[in-house]
Design brief:
about 475 residues; mainly alpha; about 0% strand; disordered N terminus
Length: about 475
């Protein structure tokens, strides 16, 4: 049997193995996260979750506005195993992390001054006196991320997900124990801050101690810098627009609605976002390196490979989103007390929006085929749709109208994905055939879950 005929089989085996580890890891980490959130919801007030949501957005935003896609470049590059490229990539990452730590301190000072001068309403998250201190504390998270091992990117390139999954699970469990202990003792938002810092510290330490391969050194090689920057300029622009498109909902709503309502939105978002986490992990850790390899070595197989990944996405992520559409309110009733009841309707709308992200698999092709400009364009389209959706929705339907606008914005980039698939001869009825069955099956399963919960736990549905 020739190498040509064995290559697809070998890739399928690695994809299946990596995908299995991703799903196991996702189930474990999300189970820990969900259990932790349920416990913390009883120890902390809803506004604490809303405040932390804004902090995460601000910190992640600063990170993405300086994102050069170091790990993605390591995955995509033909020199991905070259020590010169790896050392240069790690050095750039460290410098960026230190810079972000400093920027976080400056941002905390600016937020405090804005509140002092009356530029932020005390009724909103931005006027909360705890916000500057929490943002300042997150400078340590940025620095820890900068010192993470570049071998994480190398492991993603080769789809070695077993050790990466173990790192994620261990860091999540340790952070969960720390958060619960502090919340139990002090009932303070600092429990959530501690969780973020502990997660970053454990992930950074384990990356250097557990992952095999090249040991990083602080050095810059000119030709490696040139290659990384050539990819980085498009990734930077895409990350900036992507951040605004993905997180603009909470940034805008945080200044438009009261802290309690924003806390309810955050709780609903966190539950639906578990779908986004598994989708992103499958796309970036499994689909992207596989598609990049196929494009490098067997470009004629690109359409068939994309079709199989689209089936996987629809059969898993779209199915789960449909379950949340019909079971969302019942899940909120069971997991949270009466203070969080309003999150159920919000969860339904956001789950409908989650279906709109089904073409993430196509967007992995944009960079894997050397055309990252289309990622930038897709994020720009979603950002414009998000802004219009929130403004128009809020005008006609107040808070729920704005949330409906947020959900609909996720569908805005579908025409671009259709065009790209047609250009690469991948837009066929076979590639789309899994969508309708996944929606129908998920909706039915969700209805059965909601009915079963109402029958088994009637006390939760009486108020």
């Amino acid at each position: 049997m020739t190498a040509t005929t064995t290559a697809p089989a070998a890739l399928r085996h690695r994809v299946a193995k990596a995908g299995s580890w991703v799903l196991v890891g996702h189930f474990a980490t999300q189970s820990v996260r969900l259990a932790t959130n349920v416990v913390l919801a009883r120890l902390l007030s809803p506004d604490a979750f809303g405040l932390m949501s804004v902090v995460y957005i601000l910190v992640i935003g600063m990170a993405l506005f300086s994102d050069l896609g170091i790990n993605r470049s390591v995955v995509q590059s033909r020199r991905g195993n070259d020590p010169d490229l790896l050392d240069t990539a790690w050095t750039i990452q460290v410098v960026r992390g230190l810079g972000l730590g400093g920027v976080s301190i400056v941002a905390a000072i600016v937020i405090a001054l804005a509140a002092h001068w009356g530029l932020s309403s005390s009724k909103t998250v931005y006027g909360d006196p705890r916000l500057p201190w929490v943002v300042a504390a997150f400078s340590s998270v940025a620095i820890l991320a900068g010192f993470e091992s570049i071998r994480i990117g190398l492991a993603k390139r080769t789809m070695q997900m077993r050790l990466l999954t173990k790192i994620d699970v261990v860091s999540q469990v340790v952070a969960a124990l720390a958060m619960i202990a502090i919340a139990w003792s002090f009932h303070s938002i600092w429990a959530l801050v501690t969780g973020a810092v502990v997660t970053g510290a454990v992930r950074c330490a384990m990356g250097h101690l557990v992952l095999p391969g090249h040991r990083e050194k602080l050095r810059m090689v000119p030709d490696a810098v040139a290659e990384l920057m050539s990819h980085g300029k498009w990734i930077l622009m895409s990350s900036m627009l992507g951040f605004a498109a993905v997180n603009g909902d909470r940034l805008l709503l945080g200044g438009m609605i009261d802290k309690r309502s924003f806390g309810l939105y955050t709780v609903a978002f966190m539950l639906v976002n578990t779908l986004q986490v598994v989708a992103n992990t499958l796309c970036t850790s499994v689909a992207y390196p596989a598609i990049a390899e196929v494009h490098r070595e067997r470009p004629h197989d690109l359409a068939a490979t994309l079709q199989k990944f689209q089936w996987l996405y629809d059969g898993l992520v779209v199915l789960l989103a449909a379950i949340l559409i019909t079971a969302g309110p019942a899940i909120i009733h069971v997991l949270y007390d009466v203070r969080y009841e309003g999150a159920g309707r919000i969860m339904v709308v956001l789950a409908i929006g989650a279906v709109g992200m089904r073409y993430q698999m196509v967007e992995q092709c944009y960079q894997a085929t050397g055309e990252p400009k289309y990622i930038t364009l897709a994020n720009l389209i979603r950002l414009v749709a998000l802004g219009l959706g929130i403004v128009v929705g809020n005008h006609y339907g107040a808070t729920m109208g704005a949330i409906c606008g947020i959900a609909l914005s996720q569908y805005a980039a579908w025409p671009l994905a259709w065009w790209f698939k047609a250009r690469h001869h991948a837009f066929t009825w076979r590639s789309e055939m899994m969508l309708a069955p996944a929606l129908l099956a998920g909706s039915l399963i969700g209805w059965l879950i909601a009915t079963g919960l109402a029958w088994l736990l009637p006390a939760h549905f009486l108020h």
